[in-house]
Amino acid sequence: MGKINWGRVVVGGIVAGILVNVLQAPLDLMMRSEWQEVMKNFKPTPAVFLLHILWSFVIGIATIWLYAAIRPRYGPGWVTALRAGFAVWLFVHATFSLATGSMELLPQKLITLSALFSLPATLLSTIAGAWLYRE
After folding, report:
1. Among 52, 60, 59, which residue's Cα sits nearest to residue 14?
2. What is the rounded CA–CA span in Å between residue 34 and residue 89?
3. What is the Cα–Cα distance from 19 to 120, expressed in whole angstroms?
4. What are the pLDDT tens digits along the chain (135 aa)?
5. Which terminal Cβ of the chain has fewer Cβ within 10 Å, N or C?
6. Contact (CB, 8 A) for 128 and 15
7. Is 1 inside a domain boundary?
8. 60-81: burial string, b at 16+ Cβ within 10 Å, e else
9. What's the Cα-to-Cα distance from 105 to each of 15, 36, 56, 92, 96, rounded to whole Å?
10. How far apart are CA 111 and CA 84, in angstroms?
11. How far is residue 113's CA from residue 34's CA, in Å, rounded to a whole number?
């Protein structure tokens, strides 16, 4: 079993983080009025938005690390990338949606659409980041 190429994990993760933000932008624009209504209650600072973008890169790097870690078992390629991407979507987006929905922190429509829309965005960005990974 080969060692993980951390340089490629970081590069692939950054690409995945950029791409997921680009792919999720249309939903943010479509749901702009709903987000504006929610943000009235939170009053986020610019640092909050910066941390959200940084979080995307952390999740992207973690996703490509997971891809690299499961590659020896499942083999390289897009099917393995889909497995890693789905696991990350399940652990990050789906559980976040369940938690915020059960606590009624965000409107149900916003939570559901965000979770559903983030699945293809997460899968496609994982494939892109994994494509750059080599051991």
Report:
1. 60
2. 23
3. 11
4. 679 999 999 999 999 999 999 998 888 788 788 777 777 777 778 898 899 889 999 999 999 999 999 999 999 999 999 999 999 999 998 898 888 888 877 788 888 888 888 999 999 999 999 999 998
5. N
6. yes
7. no
8. bbbbbbbbbeebeeeebeeebb
9. 31, 14, 21, 17, 11
10. 22
11. 11
Q: What is the amino acid identity at position 97?
A: S
Tell me how far apart the alpha carbons of residues 80 and 83 are, in angstroms, rounded to a whole number: 5
Q: What is the rounded distance in angstroms from the CA atom of residue 38 to the CA atom of residue 88?
A: 26
Give the global pTM: 0.88
Q: Residue 64: inside a domain, yes or no?
A: yes
Tokens 């979507």 locate to: 89
